[in-house]
Amino acid sequence: MNTTANADAMTAILRQISLDWNRTISYGRSYIAIFFAYVPGFTCLMAATGSTLDSVAGAAIGGAASGFLMLNITLFSYEQMNNHHWMNGIVPINRNHQILGRFAFLIACDLVAGLEVAVSIACAGIIMHEPVKVTDAIGFAAMTVLILVLLNAIVQPFLYRFSPYRAVAAIILSIGVIGGAVIGLCKALPELKKTVEQLAEAISRHQAIALAAFLIIDVLALAFSRKISLHIYGSKDI
Fold first, then answer.
1. What are the two backbone dihedrals, phi and then psi, of residue 91, each rounded to the nearest 5 degrees?
2. Phi, psi at residue 66, to the nearest 5°?
């Protein structure tokens, strides 16, 4: 009985992944090409114009994170613009499996983003005549994936609660408030600023431990986000 139920659940999740993939490629090959080419192109341009490897790595991670986060928002926008959202939870799967399938699809895309960052930084290193160590490239790729998983976990309840445009506004407002609060506290409390700097230095020295801690945070964030998303989505009429 449980085996059959698990198989049915896996089939439903795979259907949702396939549906999201078809939505993504429906924008055309040119959209996909631009989507995957702009980070390597931009980082290589930075490398060719004299930027440091650290700044190139930061730009690659930031560009991939922002671009692939927009993919999540694009999927919800596609449903709204094409009036497909009324079928969610009915065809071909229920709401729980839709949420799990969406998370699975996004995590797969996050892994692609990590690979893209690693390749981009490696290419930039070749252009700058500063070969990047394999371990460093893997570290940058892992950080990209973990950041994206956390960001998607945070924004997912917003996207189920609001329309994509209102969700983006709410996300930007939240980031502004949190960022402003952190900057204000750091200015008001020099001890806090010193603590943040020490924490950043400790993370750079112990990357493996930091990545493991980040992974635990991501798992907890995904579990909490899935619970909240299901609560919000489950209460909606469709």
1. -125, 125
2. -70, -40
